[in-house]
Amino acid sequence: MTDQVITEINNRVLTITFNRPDKKNALTHAMYAKAGDAIRDAAEDDGVRAILITGAGDAFTSGNDLADFRDTPPIGTDTPVRRFLDALVSAEKPIVAAVNGLAVGVGLTMLLHADIVYASETALLSAPFVDLALVPEAASSLLLPARVGHARAAEIFMLGKRVPADEALTMGLVSAVYPADALMPAAMKAAAMLAAKAPKALKLTKMLMRGDKDVVKTRMHEEGKYFGEQLVSSEVAEAITAFMQKRAPKFE
Ligand code: COA
Question: Which residue has the least CA distance to atom 27 on ligand 1?
Answer without folding.
Answer: 24
